[in-house]
Write a sequence for this structure.
């Protein structure tokens, strides 16, 4: 029990001491995950809308593949990105991206893509089936219908993005593999926790865990806000 | 007598099953046409064919003088002469005002005119004080009144209503019926209302179409259909008996 109490005190101490290394780790974690979310959202949201509203051969199979990819293990993604960027075998080795934050962003982008795409497909499908006939009967063109569907699904799409962000912030396997957990360069919250645990510094590892948990809480509060906005109760 | 909708040899087939087969049907312009019949008779399918939400499997449907055969879609400008209200009101996740303004914005009506028209219909449906309220927070009756308001705000040539008062309390039923009559009398809208409520059909309908198993059993002026039906099945249905 003392472990947890001491870890909590340590976490507060670390935060109020404005430890440069700790804040560096926090900001890098946020930077990597936020960049990955920005890139993946730009691809996945239009892709999800297109797949959901489009009619084409193989749609069911594609959706099944996307849904299955939502639970892809991060270490597998990390391994694939590692091989692609690797100096020895990688087709992009000349870019020299391995063990850089960019490599971590690439890996996390690949992890977030199916999550945001899959959840956007679900969000748009539910809105589309609910409002499309009404919108068309009121005189909407196809483009106007698409815009309305996006507007109506905005909270659910926002929720999908935040869900993916939460997953990325807590992810360790892929960033460890392609980032290498290099101090002051590619060390993020999760890899720092893994390292401290390996060194037997459980208090520090727990303290970092508490800070990560707090960040996850903030993400979830935002998620709940979006969910509440989406589901306005009838009186 | 001018005709707003005309159907000839129309069939609608789902998964190999014919759910609607109409040899001929003419719906008079400027009148309230009530489609009656038991559940599963094809009333809603007929309404969706008229609106162009569904295409016919065979035959031709004419709207406002233009003929549309199988595979030919009703163009947007023609579709915008119609509006439809569904049994379950589907409001958008925005304010009451924004919901009603939506069809006007689609037609790129100037903002000032939109404001004037929206306020007019809000007054008509008795919900002026709810303009800024979130549409999804309304009660069922209020939501349906907003659905009707949103449909009539463009003064459509044809107003199609699919059981708009099902499950509503008498006060809301009366109000919605008043709005329908207003759209018909003040703006000359041709109304096609699907209902399984005989009393409502009698109260509103100038003309009645009785559908059974996807086919027209009888149609004609309301007073004749209700006082002197020619078909035994029509007669039984009006008396409230089970027909099949």
């Amino acid at each position: 029990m003392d472990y947890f109490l001491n870890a909590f005190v340590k976490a507060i101490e670390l935060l109020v001491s404005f430890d440069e290394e700790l804040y560096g780790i926090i900001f890098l974690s946020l930077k990597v995950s936020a960049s990955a979310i920005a890139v993946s959202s730009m691809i996945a949201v239009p892709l999800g809308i297109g797949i959901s509203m489009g009619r084409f051969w193989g749609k069911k199979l594609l959706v099944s593949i996307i849904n299955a990819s939502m639970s892809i293990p991060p270490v597998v993604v990390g391994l694939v990105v590692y091989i692609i960027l690797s100096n020895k075998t990688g087709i992009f080795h000349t870019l020299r991206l391995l063990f850089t934050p960019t490599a971590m962003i690439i890996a996390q982008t690949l992890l977030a893509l199916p999550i945001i795409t899959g959840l956007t497909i679900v969000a748009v499908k539910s809105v589309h089936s609910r409002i499309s006939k009404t919108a068309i009967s009121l005189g909407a063109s196809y483009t106007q219908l698409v815009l309305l569907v996006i507007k109506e699904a905005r909270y659910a799409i926002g929720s999908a993005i935040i869900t993916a962000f939460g997953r990325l912030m807590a992810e360790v396997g892929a960033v460890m593999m392609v980032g290498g957990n290099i101090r002051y360069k590619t060390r993020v919250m999760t890899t720092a926790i893994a390292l401290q645990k390996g060194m037997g510094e459980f208090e520090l590892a727990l303290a970092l865990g508490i800070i990560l948990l707090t960040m996850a809480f903030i993400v979830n509060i935002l998620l709940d806000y979006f969910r509440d906005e989406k589901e306005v109760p009838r009186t | 007598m001018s005709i707003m909708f005309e159907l000839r040899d129309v069939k609608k087939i789902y998964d190999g099953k014919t759910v609607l087969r109409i040899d001929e049907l003419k719906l008079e312009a400027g009148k309230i046409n009530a489609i009656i019949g038991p559940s599963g008779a094809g009333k809603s399918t007929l309404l969706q064919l008229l609106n162009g939400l569904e295409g016919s499997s065979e035959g031709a449907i004419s709207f406002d003088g233009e003929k549309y055969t199988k595979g030919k879609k009703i163009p947007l400008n023609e579709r915008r002469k119609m509006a439809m209200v569904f049994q379950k009101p589907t409001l958008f996740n925005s304010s009451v005002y924004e919901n009603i303004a939506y069809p006007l914005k689609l037609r790129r009506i100037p903002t000032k005119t939109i404001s004037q028209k929206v306020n007019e219909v809000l007054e008509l449906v008795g919900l002026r004080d709810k303009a800024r309220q979130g549409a999804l927070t309304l009660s069922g009756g209020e939501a349906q009144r907003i659905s009707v308001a949103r449909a009539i705000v463009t003064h459509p040539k044809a107003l199609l209503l699919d059981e708009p008062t099902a499950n509503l309390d008498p006060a809301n039923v009366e109000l919605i019926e008043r709005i329908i009559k207003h759209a018909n009398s003040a703006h000359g809208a041709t109304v096609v209302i699907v209902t399984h409520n005989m009393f409502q059909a009698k109260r509103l309908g100038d003309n009645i179409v009785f559908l059974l198993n996807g086919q027209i059993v009888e149609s004609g002026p309301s007073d004749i259909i209700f006082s002197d039906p020619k078909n035994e099945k029509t007669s039984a249905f009006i008396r409230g008996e089970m027909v099949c």
Q: What stands out?
A: Chain B is about 35% helix and 25% strand.
